[in-house]
Amino acid sequence: AAMSRKGVKVLVDSLTRSAKHFNKSEVECLVKLFDTLVARASSDYAGAGFDRTVFRDTLHSAFGMTDGVVLDRVFSIFDRDNDGCITVVEWVEGLGVLLRGTLEEKMKFCFAIYDLNGDGYISREEMFQMLKNSLLIQPADEEPDEGVKDLVEIALKKMASTYLFVPFLLQDHDHDGKLSFTDFEKAVRDENLLLEAFGPCLPDIK
C-alpha cells in the first residue's frame, strides 16, 4: 500500500541509519526503485515486497550477474526471514553490503554464498558445484567434471585462480577437506582477490 509522505520520510531516515553505506538521497532512490519492482511482482505479497524472479531479473540487468546458483544464493541472503519476499529493509540493507560493504561484510557475504547448505563450512562438494557453474570449459578439454574435481583439490592446498592466472594460497588449515570461515578469512586477508575464489558473486567495479 502507498505510504504517506511522513511514513516514507520515517522509513528513509531509519534505513539511512541501518544501511550505513548509503546517504539519505540514495536511500530515497532505492525506495523508489523498490516500489517500481514491487509493482512488477506478483500480488502474493500484497505490496510488501517482490519475489525471486523480479530480484534475479533486477540483479541480472543492473549488474550483469548471470549465474543462476549465485543469484538464488544472493536472494536467500537478502531474504533474511526466509519468506520468499524481499522487503524494503532487506532490499536497502542487502544492497548496502553487496555494493559498498566493508571487506569484513563482503567476506561474510561471499562465504555464505559458497556455503550452499549453511553448515558453516565450504565442503569439497560445494566447491565443486560453484566452480562447475563459474568456469568455462573448452570443448577440447578433458571431462569437465574431472577437471573441476582437480581444481577443488588444488583449492584445498594451493589454489590456482584460473580466471586470474595467478597462484594464491587458500589453505585448509585443519586438513578436514572443507574450509571454515576462519580459513577463508585468513586467505582473503592475505590476498583480497581470493574473495571470489569459487566464482563471481559480487558486481564488478563498473
Total strand count, please? 4
Going by CATH, the architecture of the largest domain would be Orthogonal Bundle
What's the order of the H and E elements? HHHHHHEHHEEEH
Helical amount: 40-55%
Give a quick account of the main beta sheet: strands, pairing sense, barrel closure. Answer: 2 strands, antiparallel
Distance between the termini: 34 Å
CATH fold call of the largest domain:
Recoverin, domain 1
Mean pLDDT: 81
Identify low-pLDDT runs: 158-169
CATH superfamily of the largest domain: EF-hand
Quickly count the helices: 9
For the record, the CATH class of the largest domain is Mainly Alpha
- Integer count of domains: 2
- Could you tell me the radius of gyration in angstroms? 19 Å
Task: Write out the strand line-up for the largest beta sheet, numbering strands in chain order.
Answer: 1-4
Written description of the protein model:
- With 206 residues, the protein is mostly helical.
- It has two domains: 5-101, Recoverin, domain 1 (Orthogonal Bundle), CATH 1.10.238.10; 104-194, Orthogonal Bundle (Recoverin, domain 1), CATH 1.10.238.
- Helix content is 55%, strand content 5%.
- The protein has nine helices and four strands; from the N terminus they run H-H-H-H-H-H-E-H-H-E-E-E-H.
- The protein has a two-stranded antiparallel ribbon. A two-stranded antiparallel sheet has the order 2-3.
- Helix 1 (5-19) packs across helix 2, helix 4 (68-78) packs across helix 6 and helix 7 (124-134) crosses helix 8 (144-155).
- The protein starts with a helix and ends in a 16-residue tail after the last helix.
- Mean pLDDT is 81; it is low at 158-169.
